[in-house]
């Protein structure tokens, strides 16, 4: 194979893969799938586009989330409000964002923050952690906007 | 039900790469492989990478006793701070110098340094520094040469390093409190003691180049670098050519299997495949009478060992295939010969899997250098104490890399590792087979092995971890 043929082969492979990349990549604005929402959430969502989203509520019984670990999906830049109700005093920690809030029986832990860090973050019950059990009560998934 | 266990230091995890990027990257790997097969060189080029010395004065400074003493002292100091802060500081993995330094800055950070600058860890290796200092003191006190250490047994090879890395992976990925500062400090002390025993028996240099797990681990990656040392000269060689001798010592094949297998297990640890299986395995151990936590740890240990065994098995399958094409080489010879290809692939696994953790979590060391015992402004568990350099409140900047950029880097690392692995396999095949026909046919097998490992790497990146 001559030098010209070699360079041609490399150029061809490069062009093919570049074109494939452009075709495969979803359009940033329109085709991006909407974050997963439950029917209840979708129903309660205001029709006008705002950057706030409905409050996420997690209920704890004996430091365990009722109905299993929650998954909260959001987009970067959205305002997230998370309320953790607990039937016993607890301390709730959101990793990455490093926010800690106290929860009491009468007074849930309230988080309100702008989701400006992309990634997957754990929400943890410090009481469950001290008890040596499973401490993650929810995961916050922040997707690129 | 989701089971949770230590996974290094958690906090933030990567979003899985989207399906379209996974598909595109997989196609890219295949295209690159076939283009490479058509284009790669006809004569071996990486077996002897040449050596061009850097200016003599530079070598003299870099390899001087003063530099060795300063680097060694820095290593020993950091070892000391790790143990001290781990035992005395706040017992929160993300808020204590010991956990962040060992699991992030050291374990992940020294990898890119080794790949770019060569075997820098050798200079900073605290155990080697202490060993040499002790030998020097003993020699001075005895006013003469010390009795020679035992000869390092050939058959021992890198096996102590395999055990060391496996123990480290167990601490990081299996033990439920493995990332806790106190566990890290105690593990450091135990490992130090074991290392000193080894050095006392077989000599400081023999032990630190063949058996000391971290020395062996970082040295493997440093062989990718163009910088190397020959005698009292520092010089340049062709990148990757330093890998041609990898595999000459017994135990190197399992060493690479532990490296790739443990990263794979970390990647799959929260994927549905594993979280669906783990409770059943834990249940089995629970029935045997282990406590809930012990049963879970036992299940994770089984998972880790299984991941390593699968990696090893897959590699040996490719080796068996390469052997089937003919030639006079034994399975063991072929397994060792193609091992250099596995080093850039192992690097790709590490780089793709941990780049964001290093970039984000590594920043915590700025804060923790000022306050090694641990303190986080937002974390009331911390104790507002020392602030040595005025950086104790430095927050982590999550803007350094976006999730989308991280995806592209991850895919880039995997593909680059694949290309490097291919080039090395091709070069080695040319060197070990006299017949060109056998060299080509053995390579098809190794190509299949590498496409397999690369696809696994991409698949792991695409796994949901949320």
Summarize this structure as a short list of keywords or feature phrases.
heterodimer; A: 145 residues; alpha+beta; Immunoglobulin-like; 2 domains; four-stranded mixed beta sheet; 3 helices; elongated; B: 466 residues; mainly alpha; three-stranded antiparallel beta sheet; 19 helices; 65% helix; globular
**Please, what is the oligomeric state?**
heterodimer
Residue share in β-strands of chain B: under 5%
Q: Give me the Rg of chain A, rounded.
A: 22 Å
Based on CA atoms alone, the radius of gyration of chain B comes out at 23 Å
The beta-strand count of chain A equals 9
How would you sum up the major sheet of chain B? 3 strands, antiparallel
Whole-Å distance between the termini of chain B? 13 Å
Please give the order of strands in the largest beta sheet of chain A: 3-9-8-5-6
Strand content of chain A: 35-45%
Largest sheet of chain A: 5 strands, mixed
CATH homolog superfamily of the largest domain in chain A: Cupredoxins -  blue copper proteins
* Large-scale geometry of chain A: elongated
First-to-last CA distance of chain A: 47 Å
Domain tally of chain A: 2
CATH class of the largest domain in chain A: Mainly Beta
Describe the overall structure.
The complex is a heterodimer of chains A (145) and B (466). With 145 residues, chain A is an alpha+beta fold. Chain A has two domains: 1-31, no CATH class; 39-143, Immunoglobulin-like (Sandwich), CATH 2.60.40. Helices cover 23% and strands 37% of the residues of chain A. Chain A is built from three helices and nine strands, in the order ααββββββββαβ. In chain A, a hairpin with a 4-residue loop joins strand 5 (90-94) and strand 6 (99-103). The termini of chain A are far apart. In chain A, 27% of the residues are buried. Residues 45-49 of chain A have low confidence and may be disordered. Chain B folds into two domains: 1-50 and 242-363 and 400-466, no CATH class; 54-237, no CATH class. By secondary structure, chain B is an all-alpha fold. The two termini of chain B are 13 Å apart. Chain A binds chain B through residues 1, 6, 9-10, 13, 16-17, 20-21, 24-26, 68-69, 71, 93, 95-96, 98-100, 116-122, 132, 134-136, 139, 141-144, and chain B through 1-4, 10-15, 18, 20-21, 23-24, 27-28, 31-32, 35, 38-39, 94, 293, 356, 376, 378-380, 398, 402-404, 465-466. Strand 8 of chain A pairs antiparallel with strand 1 of chain B.
